[in-house]
């Protein structure tokens, strides 16, 4: 089907109408509150997709012209958006994950960094909604989302990094603890301060840092290399800077995870209901991106600078 001005006008009208109509029915009976579909947010996301496509079309002056090689990717995006709109109009299954992928794909192909950033930010908002509602998602969803982010222009690296963090926190919100296991925690009132050259090894000890303010496990400054290991443990609550430590078979539960681009060794580390922060003033570094991807994709090993321990 040719890409025409009439087709776009019809699409924009349908997006607006669906968004307004679905906003009126949000919160209606028949859908549990914890599982309501965020119709106004989805409508806004669709509107951004249409805007990005329109801008790209207008920039290349191909409205009402013959189909060329340049039209192909835009035509594919438009067709997907129309399919999502139709599903919403029919009040079909939840299309949020599909919209996230379409937004990231649009950001990937947009020539204008501003429009790419807007599409990425809309995807981040939708990911946050899925996280809050703990909507199920397959590993394929996270893998394909990260792959799309890897192909978005570096000019919007901060915006795309926020999408990575949203994906990591979404995956963490879905991650269960080991079922049928009772964990006995050692309640901590103070942080663990490492002193001396070590090595220090903490094995099969579960800590509850909920009542500890600041960093829960503190290394000397500068941190000693490869001298402290936490192994086969569950760490609950609190705030933890990952730099400079070995983490082997460790599960963080409800912990605020921080990383400052330093040395790191993660082996079979899991994050359950955790949040993530990279307190860097500059653009996110490749190390920081790989750490967040490790959490989002539930990878097995990640090491920067510290030799891995078995």
What series of H and E elements makes up the topology? HHHHHHHEEEEEEEEEEEEHE
Total beta-strand segments: 13
Rg (CA only): 23 Å
Uncertain runs:
18-39, 57-71, 88-93
- Residue-averaged pLDDT, rounded? 78
How far is the first residue's CA from the last residue's CA? Answer: 58 Å
* General form: globular
Output the structural class.
alpha/beta
Number of domains: 2
Question: How many H/I helical runs?
Answer: 8
Estimate percent helicity. Answer: 40-55%
Strand content: 15-25%
Largest sheet, in brief, is: 8 strands, mixed
Task: Provide the fold topology.
Layout: H1 5-25, H2 39-60, H3 71-89, H4 96-109, H5 113-133, H6 139-150, H7 157-174, E1 186-187, E2 192-193, E3 200-203, E4 207-208, E5 217-218, E6 228-236, E7 239-241, E8 246-253, E9 256-258, E10 264-267, E11 270-272, E12 275-277, H8 286-297, E13 301-304
Parallel strand pairs: 1-4, 2-5, 3-6, 4-6, 6-8, 7-9, 8-10, 8-11, 9-12
Antiparallel strand pairs: 10-13
Helix pairs in contact: 1-2, 1-3, 2-3, 2-4, 2-5, 3-4, 4-5, 4-6, 5-7, 6-7, 7-8
Your description of this structure?
- Helix 4 packs antiparallel against helix 5 (113-133), helix 4 runs parallel beside helix 6 and helix 6 (139-150) runs antiparallel to helix 7.
- Helix content is 45%, strand content 16%.
- It is built from 8 helices and 13 strands.
- With 310 residues, it is of the alpha/beta class.
- The protein has helices spanning 5-25, 39-60, 71-89, 96-109, 113-133, 139-150, 157-174, 286-297, and strands at residues 186-187, 192-193, 200-203, 207-208, 217-218, 228-236, 239-241, 246-253, 256-258, 264-267, 270-272, 275-277, 301-304.
- The strands form 3 sheets. Strands 1, 3, 4, 6, 8, 10, 11 and 13 form an 8-stranded mixed beta sheet that branches. It has a 3-stranded parallel beta sheet with strand order 7-9-12, covered by helices on one side.
- Mean pLDDT is 78; it is low at 18-39, 57-71 and 88-93.
């Amino acid at each position: 089907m040719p890409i025409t001005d009439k087709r776009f006008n019809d699409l924009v009208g349908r997006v607006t109408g669906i968004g307004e109509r679905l906003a009126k029915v949000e919160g209606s009976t028949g859908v549990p509150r914890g599982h309501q579909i965020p119709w106004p947010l989805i409508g806004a996301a669709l509107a951004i997709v249409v805007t990005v496509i329109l801008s790209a079309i207008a920039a290349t002056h191909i409205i009402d012209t013959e189909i060329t090689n340049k039209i192909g990717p835009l035509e594919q995006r438009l067709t997907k958006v129309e399919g999502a709109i139709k599903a919403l109009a029919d009040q079909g299954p939840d299309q949020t994950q599909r919209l996230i992928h379409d937004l990231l794909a649009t950001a990937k192909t947009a020539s204008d960094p501003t429009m790419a950033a807007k599409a990425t930010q809309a995807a981040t908002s939708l990911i946050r909604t899925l996280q809050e509602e703990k909507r199920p998602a397959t590993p394929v969803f996270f893998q394909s989302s990260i792959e799309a982010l890897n192909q978005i222009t570096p000019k919007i690296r901060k915006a795309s990094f926020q999408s990575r963090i949203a994906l990591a926190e979404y995956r963490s919100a879905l991650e269960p603890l080991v079922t049928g296991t009772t964990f006995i925690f050692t309640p901590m009132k103070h942080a663990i301060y490492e002193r001396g050259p070590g090595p220090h090894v903490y094995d099969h000890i579960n800590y509850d840092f909920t009542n500890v303010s600041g960093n829960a496990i503190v290394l000397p400054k500068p941190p000693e290399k490869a001298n402290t290991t936490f192994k086969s443990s569950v760490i609950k609550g609190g705030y933890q800077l990952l730099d400079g430590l070995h983490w082997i078979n460790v599960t963080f539960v409800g912990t605020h995870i921080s990383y400052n681009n330093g040395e790191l060794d993660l082996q079979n580390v899991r994050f359950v209901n955790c949040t993530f922060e990279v307190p860097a003033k500059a653009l996110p570094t490749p190390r920081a991106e790989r750490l967040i991807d490790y959490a989002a994709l539930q990878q097995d090993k990640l090491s920067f600078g510290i030799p891995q321990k078995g």
